[in-house]
Amino acid sequence: MNNLKAKKNPIEISVIGSGIAGITTAFHLGQKGYKVNLIDPKVNSEINNINPLNGSQAALGVLMGNSYKRTKGRAFFLRKKSMELWKDWLIQLDYSRSSIALEKPLIKLASSAKEYQSMIEISKNKKEYGIELLDEISLEFWSSIFEKQLIGGLISHEDGRLNPIKLIRLIMSSLDNMKVNKIERNVIRIKNNKLSNKNWQVYFENNEYMNQDYIVICSALNTEKLLKPLGHEIHLEPILGQVFELELKDLTTNWYQWPAILNYQSINFIHHDPNHILMGATIENGTEPNLKYKQEMLDMNKDAPKWIRKARISHQWSGIRARPRNEPAPLLKELEPGLLINTGHYRNGILLAPSCAEWIGLKINRC
Question: Can you give the residue ranges of the FAD dependent oxidoreductase domain (predicted)?
Fold first, then answer.
C-alpha cells in the first residue's frame, strides 16, 4: 500500500481504545507519519458481529450525513466533512481490491405529519446533496410493504451504509501496513510526566509504563475512569443498540427497489440476503438487552406488518455505546497539552469517525 506510506515523525502517540474512533484516529495519525501505539486488551481479537467486542462491531454502519436536518453548527460540519473524507479514505483503504464501497441510497419514511414536514424542508434546503422527496409510485410501493398508507418520505442518493465488519478489518489491516504498534494490554492509569521531554506516561499492570508525547483517549465508557484521577470530570452513560436478523417466510417483493438503508420509526432495515433482513436501532439505556425494548421494536408501535410478525429471528446481537451526559456527542476535547479525547459518539460512530480523527490530527499538528 504505497499510498499509505508517510515520512516518519519522531512524535509518539498512544491511542487508547480500538473501537471505530480509536482505529480511525490511529489510521489518520499513521498516515501523517507519527509513531502510533494502539492500546486495547482486545485489539487483536477476532472481528465479527456474532459476539461483538464493542459497539462498533455491533453497528450497522449507517451513514446518514447528507440528510441531516441542520445546515450549520458543529454537528452539521462534522457530518459534512466526514462524508467528504470517507470517499478519499475508502480509496486509500481498499487500494483497488473493490471489497468495500459505500452502499447507496438511503430512504427515510415519515411516521408522522411533523416528521414529513421536516423532510419537505430538508428536500428544499439540500437539493445539492442529492436529496428529494419520494414520488407517488415509490410511496405506494413502501405503503404496500408496510401494509399501511404512509404520509411520505425522502431519498438521499449519497447517504447509505458501510459494511462495518469489512470496514474494521480493512482499517486494522492498513494499520499493520503502516506499522502501527498494537498493544494488547489494559491501561491502568495515565500520568502527566513533568520530568521528561515526553509529556505523558501510560501505565499498565505491574507498574510498567511508556513515555509518550500525546495520549488520545477513545475508550468510550472507560474514559471516565482514566480521567478522574487527573481531575477531569467526563460523564458518559451506556446506551445499547440491538440488531435482529429476520428470516422472512412470505414476503414477496422486488428486492432491487430496496435501498442500502431504509429508515422508518427510527429503525434501520437492511436487506442483505435473499429473504433475510437486518432490523436494528439504538434504543435503550443500560448494558444488557431488555426484552421489553426488543418486543417494542419488533412490534413497531403495534404497526408491524405481517411479514415481520411472521418472521423468525435467525440471529441477534447488541452493542454498548457511550453517550455524553449534558453535552453534545461526540466529545472532542483537548483537556491538557498532549491529552485529547475522541469519544462518546453514541449513534454516529462510523459516520463521524473521519472528521473526528482529522480534528485530533489538526490539534496535534498545531501544538
Answer: 13-360
Count of other CB atoms within 10 angstroms of residue 122: 23
Rounded Cα distance between 71 and 184, Å, is 41
Task: Give the C-alpha distances (Å, rounded to integers) separating 187 from 23, 91, 151, 219.
Answer: 16, 33, 51, 10
- Please give the grid coordinates belonging to residue 68: 441531516
Amino acid of residue 12:
E
Residues 219 and 186: their CA atoms lie apart, in Å, by 11
CA distance 350 to 20: 6
Which strands make up the sheet holding 34-39, listed edge to edge?
181-183, 34-39, 9-16, 214-217, 339-343, 331-336
Q: Are 294 and 300 in contact (CB under 8 A)?
A: no
Angstrom distance (rounded) from CA 104 to CA 106: 6
Contact 134, 154 (CB under 8 A): yes
- Residue indicated by cell numbers 458501510: 162
Give the integer Cα–Cα distance in Å for 27 and 22.
Answer: 9
Q: φ and ψ at 259, to 5 degrees?
A: -80, 180
Q: What is the pTM of this model?
A: 0.95
What is d(CA 39, CA 285) in angstroms, rounded to the nearest whole number?
27
pLDDT of residue 195: 79
Using alpha carbons, select from 333, 328, 326 the residue that is nearest to residue 356.
Answer: 333
- Each residue of 295-350: pLDDT tens digit? 999 999 999 999 999 999 999 999 999 999 999 999 999 999 999 999 999 889 99
Domains of the chain in sequence order: 2-97+164-235+329-366 (3.50.50.60), 106-161+237-324 (3.30.9.10)
Residue 135 β-bridge partners: none
